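Preliminary data (for renewal application), iron/sulfur cluster complex.
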Amino acid sequence: MLSRASRLVQARASAPAVRLGAVRMASTFMTNYKKEVAERAAMGIVPKPLDAAKTAALVELLQKPPADEGKELLELLKMRVPPGVDEAAYVKAGFLAAVAKGDATSPLISQKDAVFLLGTMQGGYNIQPLVDALDKPDLAEIAADALSKTILVFDSFHDVQDKAKKGNAAAKRVMKSWADAEWFTSRPEVAKKITFTVFKVTGETNTDDLSPAPDAWSRPDIPLHALAMLKHPRDGIKGVTDKENGTKAQIDEAMKKGFPLAYVGDVVGTGSSRKSATNSVLWYMGDDLPYVPNKRGGGICIGSKIAPIFFNTMQDAGALPIEMDVSKMHMNDVVDIYPYEGVAKSHTTGEVLAKFEVKTQVIFDEVRAGGRIPLIIGRGLTSRARTALDLPATTVFRSLGDAPPTPAGYTLAQKMVGKACGRPGVSPGEYCEPLMTTVGSQDTTGPMTRDELKDLACLGFSADLVMQSFCHTAAYPKPVDVKTHHTLPDFIMNRGGVSLRPGDGIIHSWLNRMLLPDTVGTGGDSHTRFPIGISFPAGSGLVAFAAATGTMPLDMPESVLVKFTGTMQPGITLRDLVHAIPYAARQRGLLTVEKKGKINVFSGRILEIEGLEHLKCEQAFELSDASAERSAAGCTISLDQAPISEYLTSNVVMLKWMIAEGYGDRRTLERRIANMEEWLAKPKLMKADKAAKYYETIEINMDQLKEPILCCPNDPDDARLLSDPTIAGSKIDEVFIGSCMTNIGHFRAAGKMLDSFKGQLPTRLWVSPPTKMDAAQLTAEGYYSIYGKAGARTEMPGCSLCMGNQARVADKAKVVSTSTRNFPNRLGNGADVFLASAELAALAAIKGKLPTPDEYLEAWKKIDASAADTYRYLNFDQLATYNDKATTITLSPEVVAAAKKLAA
Ligand code: SF4
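Predicted structure:
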């Protein structure tokens, strides 16, 4: 793996060859570039932004440009280099800084031009040269103009403040401009009337439809990835058939009306926050961003219902998401919306099509600022400048609203978020910015998070622990994935994060083992749902913001309480309790499967679970993980202290073993270990107040739950009993046992069932444990030999079939899977997928059909006889392989002292 510095050295190393023959190589550079442009144009897309090596070659040429290429070369430098702390930006900023200082020259770029262009680079490597230019009489005004519109200045604020205090007039102007929020007021307000052409997608669009998992490899290349948007044909959408007749042709046709397009759907963005889905929509329906190649912002997204986390991702990208009735809007209609009045009318007849209310008036400021994240950062800068200048708070921004009254009691989630905000609790509906203690990033969103971090000019994480995994791409990587495997670990560790390695296993099975009780975090995977503490998963933009700043904007959601009572009955597994939640909600009319007018009590709310306090943390994660399928904003599970202490004791050993195995960043791992040990020394857990109020309470009496529950093809909300006549005896072709919903106990249970089966399986059985530690333990206990004998296909630990971007089941296969979700086409094209427990899945693999409840119970009794052996979890403190290495690690005294101080 190359460090950032090494790669920059490599990039520069290519420059001398160019320098030797600038005129001759100029032609070569442009010839090669034009070839690339033509290749991409043949695919219907714009060229990639320039990388560091190309930028290095370009800046060499600009110093002595060939007469007929100068204009084009300059345009490339201006428009085709990513801003922020991208490596190419480093080269560009370095060159422009040298020109501004007079250390380098170009006949095409004056010193003033150089300062102006530095001002278009948003933040990062361009800031120091701009601050330096404030001292140069010729350049100071241009630098002041640029800095006034720049919000990603971080600690350079103090440099400008110091200069202002010393009497530098340009620096004083910058401070005043920041205080007056000119970065904001200089941008246009949201128009009173917006006209657009409807791009209508009926029914439910989930984020897999917008950004399909098998195309995850192309997500960082926004124009290329956008070609996969709505690739499967559906009602009114042609899919990817051919260029002339597919979805893209429909988009081109709609654009001929001469207005921007708006994405309009019944239910939009179900499934995840997936920034790549937003990127694809905005690539076709957003606005160009000046000086930022291959990215668009703004845009309008309308849905009768927009999934809350997708809504947030749209907000972060500067789009205007609005919920309204879309029944009178059809493909290619031209519509006028009046956002402040809350009305949509036909552009041709003036007929009122729908009335609406925007979620919050602040959204108008967010759109004006270019997104929720720029607004938060900019507001912070303005407030800092006003404090420095002794000015009262600004009134430029719309008010966040009065805090709701303090409730009589807080729920567990409200207390956890309160603690992260330094308060006893946070009321539902209240805006807050909780501290992000733990942030996770996985590999199909990781490269986008990296790009967002570069855009945020982040050179070090403020979140206490940021972890990167490679679980989605390790098994069958494409060349682009291999490149990510080589480059992303250093990018994360150089900023103080922890990087896993390809083949280690699933993000959550690792990240959960790094958590601190009652703390808050986030992650770029929608299943980042902590079993202890709480996580609010988010799109890669917000995840990057949380990692970089250590906080996250949050409108505290309401909570729905699910309360389990009674005792688990024979044959019932944790997975059945997971499915009992949608089952019970449907019976009470709080959840519907029908998409039109869909009801979902959990959507955008926090799912809080009580009544299963004895669960191990691994088991609790099955419940919290599946809160993603409920479209919940987050999940808490009330647990006893004993399982949490057991988990942390084990996890301390795992983290020390990681250090011994050479994982980094060591300091971050040490810090987390020290904080865990402090908690173990004085364990303390929050509980919901008795007077806490919930939006709804759903009670599930386990005494009445006597047979397994499956979620039927292809909707995780379609929960039915095994005996349901509509599914009884269904033929099964393939079975998948794996995903973050599984732990080692499931693989032992399946292994024991397979062991008692003699002969060849009539199905294709896929087995993929969540981590390499699970795989090693199962191998040591002889389970891999059982899987092999039964004819099962064992896969590398990781997401495997669950993500659908690696190996896939056969087209139109009938499948039982232990994975998280069964969205159409996720596991295989046209596949019908039942979600079920590992125990039921193993039996279905043996029988080639769904068993009857009696057959299931009979098989279950055999494994229940040895339940204590089957359902043992990986307690690393009890395993010599890990413990022996862990004992070699000593924490640094400063880290231990800091943890003690924090706990005090
Ligand atoms: S196993 Fe599936 S749900 Fe879990 S992290 Fe991987 S892809 Fe996501």
